[in-house]
Amino acid sequence: MIIVKVKNAGSIEQAIKQYKFKINKTKQLQKLRERQEFTKKSIKKREQNKKSVYLQKKKSQLES
Fold it and tell me: Would you say 19 and 6 are in contact if contact means Cβ atoms under 8 Å apart?
């Protein structure tokens, strides 16, 4: 549960901004979207491998 403390003179806009920042930082929205539908472990592994290959290529391009 995300708690945002609003000071007496604090504005609602600042509280909303803090709330959005905390949601992005804790990755709650991503987790919620992942849980909407079931994905098999094999598909998760495949996506993870794709991502790692992509990052390795990027890293090797930067070093060259």
Answer: no
CA dihedral for 49, 53, 58, 64, sign (positive or negative): positive
Q: Collapse the DSSP code of 59 into the 3-class scheme (helix H, G, I; strand E, B; otherwise coil) and give the result.
A: helix
pLDDT in tens, 11-62: 889 999 999 999 999 999 999 999 999 999 999 999 999 999 999 999 999 9
The 10 Å CB-count burial string (b at 16+, else e) for 30-60 is eeeeeeeeeeeeeeeeeeeeeeeeeeeeeee
pLDDT of residue 19: 93
Q: Which pair of tokens denotes residue 38?
A: 């079931």
